[in-house]
Amino acid sequence: MVIGSLFDDSGDDAVPTEHLAPPPPPLPVEDYVVFFESTVPMLDICIVASHGRLLLARTRIRYYVCDPSANRWIVLPRSTIAPVCDANAGIHYEVDASTGMTAFTVVLLLGRKLRRGLVETFSSRTGDWNARELRAQGVLRCLGAASPGIHVGSCFYWQNRRSGRVIRYDAARDRASVFREAPLAHKAVAQAARLGRSLGSVDGTGIRLCAFDIRDEKSKCMMPHDDLEGVHGVWFMEDASWRRVHEAVVEDLSVWYFLSLWGKEKPVDFPGASGDFIVLDVEGQLLRYDLESGSKVLLFSLYRETTRLSALYRRFHAFPFFA
Fold first, then answer.
1. Which domain of life is it from (predicted)?
2. Residue 68 domain flag
């Protein structure tokens, strides 16, 4: 039986999954809220990747594939790469239109000693992990979980810990590579100019990079000083090169002090995002930023919110996926 059918209730032979049934609340509560506020703490899982409605999560010994919108999950068999390792993780799923069955793939990349690496994939169609050696010296130097994996086409993408690089793994060809992220804004400060960067995808058709760069007309002056400009930039990857699709200047910034900035508008991109807006994190305030009009609408305030959902966002940036 295809393991993907665990998320399908339409057939008589569907395999039952665990389901947390909380006490009935006085008012209806959406399943994704129950998942984040009750199921995640109960299972003690960490969210490491997402794609569409499914999340890849882990405990100290196992990986889970979760459907927060239905508050359901399945436990994957043990993998060669221990979940506690600093592995690059990604997930992708497809739904068969004729049967309604969900099939998914999980990918893990891990750097090892002696310039060796390991790639391990799990397919719900077979129910098994497949581990093999990863031979790509340039990629091995960049591995490390700096962002959730973004899936587009047959490839998974991750930001790396060192600013300026993106890791790509082509699952169809079993090849890994690394390339440069989009350039800094014109006249941006060379040192620590990119204060925010986030990788996402638009409608599953291509990857995009959202960034917040700093222009400093007095870069040779002693700090602290003002007269700074923030620059929001959005790029799409087309034909192996970045194309800038949006740039907007943010004035009246706070003083730049020791290469840090209070009130910076950090972009929080995510898989499956709309091409019309991006999400900004401004010191605990999540804003929807319309790329055409430039308007900003408050989505969520972490200062006023005291539920576990706030803590989960701070740890995993989970909120933009589901609210």
1. Eukaryota
2. no
